[in-house]
């Protein structure tokens, strides 16, 4: 949760290097919130992040 908005879950991604990817969804579905959180522009206010079922702290990512 960021700024009182839930980030949709579960979110499945299959990203490949050197490819262009898009993020689509309905108005106010959390696209910008998700990208701002991943870019560390806003702090989380709740919830968890997991990759392949294992908890992840964004502070530990490069």
Explained architecture:
- Helices cover 13% and strands 6% of the residues.
- Strands 1-2 form a two-stranded antiparallel sheet.
- The protein has one helix at 31-38; strands at residues 50-51, 54-55.
- The chain is globular and about 35 Å long.
- The chain has 62 residues and is low in regular secondary structure.
- Strand 1 (50-51) and strand 2 form a beta hairpin.
- It starts with 30 loop residues before the first helix and ends in a 7-residue tail after the last strand.
- The mean pLDDT is 77.
- It has one domain.
Query: Structural class, from secondary structure content?
Result: little secondary structure
Biggest sheet strand order reads 1-2
Beta strand count: 2
Shape: globular
The number of helical elements comes to 1
Encode the helix/strand succession as letters. Answer: HEE
């Amino acid at each position: 949760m960021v700024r009182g908005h839930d980030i949709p879950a579960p979110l499945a991604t299959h990203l490949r290097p050197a490819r262009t990817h898009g993020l689509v969804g309905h108005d106010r579905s959390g696209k910008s919130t998700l990208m701002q959180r991943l870019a560390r522009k806003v702090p989380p206010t709740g919830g968890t992040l997991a990759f392949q079922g294992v908890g992840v702290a964004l502070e530990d990512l490069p």
